[in-house]
Amino acid sequence: MFERLDPVDRRLMDEFQRDLPLVPRPFAAIARTLGTDEDEVIARLQALHAQGKVSRVGATVRPNTAGASTLAAIAVPEARIEDVAAIVGAEPGVNHSYLREDDWNLWFVATAPDRAALADMLGRIAARTGLRVLDLRLVQPFNIDLGFRLGGTGRDPMPGARGVRAAALLEEDRPILQALTTGLPLVPRPFQATGTATGHSEDEVIARIAALADAGVLTRVGIIVRHRAVGWTSNAMVVWSLPDDLIEAAGRALARHRGVTLCYRRQTVPGIWDFPLYSMIHARSRSEALGILGGAAALPELAGATHRVLFSTRCFKQQGALLQAAAA
After folding, report:
1. Which of 77, 240, 269, 282 could link 232 by a cystine bridge, Cβ 3.0 to 4.6 Å?
2. CA-to-CA distance for 320 and 181, rounded, in angstroms?
3. Residue 325: other Cβ atoms inside 10 A
4. Considering the entire predicted model, what is its pTM?
5. Stretch 125-145: mean pLDDT, rounded?
């Protein structure tokens, strides 16, 4: 599907998932690279957004730096999937929600301004559904940058997780971060418009985005693609069970493996969910995904590790994270 898109649209989504030009007119800078003009780049991004192929132009924020977040799971009876998914999706702080092939079948990412607000959200979901919610908090990221090249036949290894200097985040940065996770306005001077909305100058917005990206608070700044909408429809979360002393080496090896797009360690729920290591594979077919998994399972660092494959079958919700409490 991606290969059938207009060549300029393909380059937009392939080349600008990170390193958005931090200049007053970023779309003009992109246009110069693509050999077109600013108005066309903005029009193409607006169309791709309307078609559901692009989520936003903005940034992804490293988990648990500007707020509190977790991955959660619920084992939902088949007859209740629609109702429970609606309850989960109604929470503004739930930004991703998927149905996956497992008894624990409804998975979602929840983000809140702080840990107490996050706990309240999970508690509301449990109370309204009458079902247990597994809280699988991040322990260690190995790769948390879902910005892979879409074109070509090869699949480069994803960049490893960088260190983070959380102290670089200032309180006055939070409205800028929320704007980046919601999406920059698709206008000639988006940083100026964001500054007007958040009480900053254009130069201040650009400088703070650059500083937060350098500090690792922002994991990437660019075009956020909806991979399923452009052909990556066979996406699997693979969870691994192995002893604590082997997780570090296994996670680093998995993060370097071609085709593994995310990798991190999370808390377990002993006796219920004993899988501390997670990896994501985004592929265009189930056979392609299983081929990538076969190579990953053969890594020496994962020798003897049991794993479970949870293919995503439906996306209920996908949006930027909620980092600020909604205005009263």
Report:
1. 282
2. 5
3. 13
4. 0.88
5. 95
